[in-house]
Design a protein that fits this description.
Layout (H helix, E strand, L loop, with lengths): L10 H18 L2 E6 L5 H12 L4 E7 L14 E4 L2 H4 L3 H9 L9 E6 L5 H11 L3 E10 L8 H5 L14 H9 L10 E7 L8 E6 L4
Parallel strand pairs: 1-2, 1-4, 2-3, 4-5
Antiparallel strand pairs: 5-7, 6-7
Length: 215
């Protein structure tokens, strides 16, 4: 697979991010992007570049381990938190202050949350629960690697683990986590599934959710 403008994802997945960035520009006038699982910066670099191409103000922040910090960083004011996502959310006030410098609203700092970190069930669920409260109403949460479970070669090659530092994550956990949260089934009134890109390979796939209101 050739890298997309947003790193390791398929063409149709990259097209979805293109459309989402344009939607955010129309809806909010800017993109405030928070990425869980930076993995070298392919996605955030692509998001910043696309925003610049369409003349859309952009702020970006990311959470991952130190070895996955983008180099070079995509923006001068890029905020990177070199730790497990289970811990970084406690510094969310700092993130909000950074976005506030660009005119961010109240305590809902971000309109685009991209979750692509550790793919175990626990992390997938906790990343949503810990970071989704900081998404503005009308903003979006995009999960990557939401393919339906594949119990064959992929699961054997990518075993489940609760930390992905230096290890490939399990593709099984993300979808299971979304189901446990009630997001896939539409059980939550505050978040709505807007679009899904499926995959029958046991890899890749995306689910896009929109924040409807605050609980």
């Amino acid at each position: 697979m050739n890298p997309s403008p947003y790193g390791f994802m398929r063409e149709e997945e990259a097209d979805l991010i293109d459309k989402l960035i344009s939607k955010l520009k129309d809806q909010f006038g800017s993109v405030s992007f928070l990425e869980i699982g930076v993995f070298g910066g392919g996605t955030v670099t692509g998001v910043v570049k696309r925003c610049q191409e369409i003349d859309c103000p952009v702020f970006a922040a990311g959470v991952d381990f130190e070895q996955w910090k983008p180099s070079p960083v995509p923006l001068d004011n890029y905020a990177f938190f070199p730790t497990d996502s289970m811990d970084a959310w406690r510094d969310i006030k700092f993130l909000i202050e950074k976005v506030g410098d660009m005119g961010g609203k109240s305590n809902r700092a971000f309109n685009f949350l991209f979750v692509d970190g550790c793919h175990c069930v626990n992390h997938s669920m906790c990343d949503f629960l810990n970071y989704s409260p900081f998404v503005e109403v009308g903003g979006y949460c995009l999960f990557h690697d939401t393919a339906k479970p594949s119990f064959g070669e992929h699961q054997e090659a990518w075993p489940q683990d609760h930390s992905y530092a230096g290890k490939p994550p399990s593709v099984l956990g993300v979808r299971e986590g979304l189901a446990k949260l009630g997001l896939l089934q539409g059980y939550r009134a505050d978040w709505k599934l807007i679009e899904e890109i499926t995959s029958d390979t046991g890899l890749m796939g995306m689910c896009l959710f929109r924040k409807e209101f605050e609980l």
